[in-house]
């Protein structure tokens, strides 16, 4: 299918595989989020595709958003609203989506994992909603998706403390 250096899309039978490859930590920014959303929406139009797997080629599933110093490589100001606009497009995906989470899924990476209908993980994975530690409101729809997945009390604990949990604890939480 299509391939870029950051987002690689392939198909194996009826299953599409999207690999995020931004070593070493797979940080995402607005252009990457746009390309990821575009890839998912393209796969929605592909009648031969029945499901999508999202994984990483780096040491982390996704260690969060990269707003850097607020200026892109081309010198333009990075608008967080543009990032979240693209992130919300991911929720429009209609095909079953499975996130294969290895390594860190932190901040936006946790949000990206929660876009999926199903998550597969391992003991070495690490999950954290670290937004409050950075001084801002949880993004990526986490204040809605996380409580739906693990319950209001557990979600509040993770969102308020920013505590990191391992893959086994995440599975136990649901």
Give the number of helices: 7
CATH architecture title = Alpha-Beta Complex
- Structurally, how many domains make up the residues? 1
Number of strands: 8
Describe the fold and architecture.
The protein is α/β, with parallel strands linked by helices and 174 residues long. The protein has a single domain, classed as 2-enoyl-CoA Hydratase, Chain A, domain 1 (Alpha-Beta Complex). It contains seven helices and eight strands; from the N terminus they run ββαβαββαββαααβα. It has helices at 30-45, 80-89, 108-115, 131-134, 142-150, 152-161, 167-173, and strands spanning 7-12, 15-20, 51-56, 97-101, 104-106, 118-121, 126-128, 165-166. The strands form two sheets. A five-stranded mixed β-sheet has the order 1-2-3-4-6. A hairpin with a 2-residue loop joins β1 and β2. The longest helix has 16 residues, at 30-45. It is globular and about 40 Å long.
């Amino acid at each position: 299918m299509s391939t870029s250096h950051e987002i690689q899309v392939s198909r194996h039978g009826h299953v599409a595989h999207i690999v995020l490859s931004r070593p070493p930590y797979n940080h995402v920014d607005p252009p990457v989020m746009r390309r990821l959303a575009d890839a998912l929406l393209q796969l929605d139009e592909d009648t031969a595709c029945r499901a999508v797997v999202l994984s990483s080629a780096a040491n982390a599933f996704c260690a969060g958003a990269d707003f850097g110093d607020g200026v892109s490589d081309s010198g333009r100001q990075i608008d967080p609203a543009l990032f979240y606009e693209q992130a919300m497009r991911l929720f429009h995906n209609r095909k079953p989506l499975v996130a294969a989470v290895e390594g860190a899924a932190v901040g936006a990476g946790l949000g990206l994992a929660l876009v999926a209908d199903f998550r597969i993980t391992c003991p070495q994975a690490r999950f954290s909603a670290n937004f409050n530690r950075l001084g801002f409101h949880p993004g990526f729809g986490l204040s809605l998706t996380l409580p739906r997945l693990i319950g209001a009390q557990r979600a509040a604990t993770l969102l308020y403390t920013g505590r990191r949990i391992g893959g086994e604890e995440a599975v136990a939480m649901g």
